[in-house]
Amino acid sequence: MLVLGLLALYWIAYRPLAQTSGQILAPVSARATVVRDALGVPHISAANWEDTIFLQGYVTAQDRLWQMDALRRLAAGELSELIGPRTLEVDREARRLRMRRIAEEQSRTLPEEDRAVLAAYARGVNYFIETHRGRLPLEFTLLRYDPRPWHVVDSILCGLQMHRNLTTTWKEELQKQAMLAGGDAAKVNFLFPTWAGTEFQPGSNAWAISGKHTASGKPILANDPHLEFSLPSTWYQVHLQAPGLNVTGVSLPGVPAVIIGHNERIAWGVTNLGFDVQDLYMERFDPRSGQYVFHGQIERARLETERIPVKGAKPEEFQQWVTRHGPVTVAEQGRFLALRWSAAEPGSFQFPFLDVNRARNWQEFTAAIARFAGPGQNFVYADVDGNIGYHATGKLPIRKNYDGDVPVDGSSGDYEWEGFIPFDQLPAFYNPPQGWIITANQNPFPKDYPYRVHGDFASPFRSLEIRSLLTAHESWKPGEMLGVEKDVYSAFSHFLARQIVAAYDQRKPGGEELKSCVALLRSWNGQMEKQTPAPLLITLVYQQLRKMVAERAAPGKADLYSPQMAPAVVEKILEGDARGWFQDKNEALIRALSGAFEEGRKAQGGNVNRWDYGKANELTIKHPVGGELPLLGAYFNVGPIEMSGSSTTIKQTTIRLGPSMRFVADLADWEHSLNNITIGESGQFLSRHYKDQWDAYYAGRSFPMQFGKVEAKETLVVAPK
Asked: Which of the chain's termini has less CB crowding within 10 Å, N or C?
């Protein structure tokens, strides 16, 4: 039995591993090479960009084909065809958003130069599929299916999935509307600010510092975007070379070119902008006929019908009305709400990243990102000439007489988008006098901005802490940026701890438990470290206070309130006149402390000094297929493992999301640049590159980005077919 088991493992899991040495024939115009370094990162060198992008598609499929297939199916609403009824609601949600239909519509209007890039990538993916039938990655064998050919639409779907992840805000509009119904409107609006009041400028973390602050005299750029953890990793590292093209960094599986990285002259990073690009419209709608009212006229919605294939069951028919505003995604209590989303607007998908990869200066770089429609991003820039810059991007709607924070009347015609904010009027900086630019998802728009601003912006604690660290000393070196990226000090949590201590000292309530809690917070340094008790206690205190203020604003609806800006709101209430929120602020703080202790006691016992924040912030990253296997599942997965950090620390870490990679670019010497992703390059569990980056990621270490000097561990020669 053991021999048979080993043979089966070899046949279905070892044979599909990527061929990384020797020679293959492929439809390329001239001889090319794919050199793999010690981390398995492919360094592709070809005669022209078409061959290079073709090979990028090929090698990405070698390592990540099942992830790519799962991403396009997730976006298109086609998972149930493989999984069965348990993913039906996931598929319905994708169909409600019309993801495949949007991708097909955007494909028809793609600029020809963008289509050529996506088509070259698709040819590479398909060449891998065609030449590896019968020895595809393990997941295809376990789920008993073969992938269909890759198309341009599939790359658009992968991009749309990221767009969806970073811009879905319509549910927050419903939550705020529910809190306003029967709540104190002034207080509810106070709880949902667009600005916290402490933003300094844009500059999930990205920053650039000029040469006057570095040891080399040249800029350093750092970027660690925060995204949901996944296995395989969100990003795929790659180095692309051809005449006029020499770029390295990270790509999205399923999408060509380098999304974040550097070439021979410039480096760039991105963070999510957070501007609201979705609106819900309450339609005066008849679901029997599809008729609805707009601007005093009767219009008819379009009925779209689809079939969702379901493994082991009958296909489900899916029907949806689509008005001029978008799909009727919500129907409840006699209300019909249609969703308008910038991603569905004509021309909302362009692919400028090959132009970004070839840009040589600020002018060429901004000309390229001006075509980037979404998801809206903060782009941070540096170049070898010593310049640093920032530019917001995206197709951001102009709202004239409303903010977009709650659903609006779709029948009146008074709440229509009036175009999109011109690129040259979006926030931008070039060589600011202070010599640094910082973005950490905070609101980058000035208060006197000529257009209405609304979005899911972060409280400014991370950006302020980055500024504090970067301005604390001079002569920065690239490796020192890792210390900033993994910093877990929370100014907000430390502030809240001091508030608790001050309230206790004034009120002096009895009870040994509270005395122990206050003693713990009194000596705490604000570090959100695993295996320590204070971070857990103060996190529970914050949750109690957040519910208190939400309950005061909207009785019975406190559980609806959890926006990114909430910590800044709580801080503002505690620092100001809190009488409108609490009869006695100190009493409220003591009550929050007591409630936090009781909650923690149930989970970790009555001795607060033995609590462990890491146990409450414990991460498990499960492989969606292999992680379900008996006996072998644990090998596929990462964790459970305790994590440090919080939503208000530079290293923003929760049980759901964290830094998706860490990138540091040294504009003085590219060989000193650093990059690592979360898990590893390969999605195949028998590959030595399946988890080989996790230990360094977890410890906050990194790896040199091999660029001019590549230490070849394996070389695959690609000869013309």
From this structure: N
